[in-house]
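Re-run with default settings, no changes from the original entry. Doing this only to confirm the output is reproducible before filing.
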Amino acid sequence: MKKLTLLLGILILFSSCKQKVNFEAHDINFDRDVCFVCLMGLTDQRYNAQAINEYGEVHWYDDIGCLGEEMRDTITWDQWKGNKVRFWIGDASKGNDPSNWIDAETAFYDYGKHTPMGYGYSAYAEKPNADTLYTFEEVLKRINDGKTMRESFIQEKMLMMKDDPDKVKMLEKKLKNEQSKGDSTSHVGHNH
């Protein structure tokens, strides 16, 4: 009976201990980690992003635009993130080092560079010399409003895939989706 009581006490003790979540940036495993949204392998740390939820789960993104796309589905996003989420993004001025992470919410963003999925936003820890800079929230809103380089990115891919009618049809559908974003009045849900 003493053993059973001791065992129950230990089980209660362990079940009452809540594991502390590590919200620090995780290094990319380039052999395994893929974008949660587009399923592309992560290859260019300068533009990759990650979100860590209150349960310690990590969602990877090969472009901040993919993060914005996931956040667009506010019900699913809010359910996944729980009460707290932390965002990290690669510093575009640094190399392709898997540990090159900066706080995405305090980073400076510019627009107009070729990024992995063609959204065109780059993040920096230090304020870059650029005509226009954006905050994290502004970038997410602009992505949601369709203010990206995605249309030209998709059109370029269509030219490269012109001999594959199935891929061209898929890209045409994506292009129409991008064009409809500018007409939409929906907003990204981003309560942290």
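The mean pLDDT is 83. The first helix runs from residue 2 to 16.
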